[in-house]
Amino acid sequence: MNAQPILKVVIHGASGRMGQALLRLAAQMPDIDVVAAVARRAPSQRVIDGVPHFAASELSGLPAFDVAIDFSLPDGVAALARLCAERGAALVCGTTGLDAEGEAALAALAGRAPLVWASNYSLGVAVLTDLVARAAALLADWDCDIVESHHIHKKDAPSGTALSLGQAAQGQGVQPHYASLRAGDIVGEHTVQFAGLGERIELVHRASNRDIFARGALEAARRLVARAPGRYSVAELLTA
Hints:
alpha/beta, four-stranded mixed β-sheet, 7 helices, Dihydrodipicolinate Reductase, domain 2, Rossmann fold, single chain, about 35% helix
């Protein structure tokens, strides 16, 4: 029996909520070796639970890796994308609110290595996005509203997931309206409502545990590394 190949992974944004979930779950997966964890500031310890830690300013010193998983801040994405392009490494990016530099760096990377950028790595949200597009195509003259709720620490509004759901509706000629709520420790809830005269349809996804996003990102990383250079969607990777 052939041994399972080991995937060498960098976690970028390791000090955040998603970064911590990725580190915890990856440690339980025998086919994944986290070769580096990168945080914004210099680490107080260089090695934690067997994983070398680096500051964002030390990217050039990272060991060899197959794929980077990024859940950081918008201003850190461009440098990581350029490093992945230089090394021909894949990138799974979940950072939202990107600026023009970040967008350009991702576009350049896709010409040299496989890339997936998504606002949400949940399989349920991938299915929800498909359902929204189908509903919008059939209900083009109905009102479309997207309501999203997240924890009080989330900065961007509407959320990246809400905007992606809105793009699915817009692709069918429907213009959505958005509402955002920030309260408590809500992991993430998204409701897409189509309202007509005397009736309405609600499509809802509720995340009760952040691990669903981390698991989805790790699975996307597994499936991305074997792909040719280019830009891929979560649905292409997780439902293939």
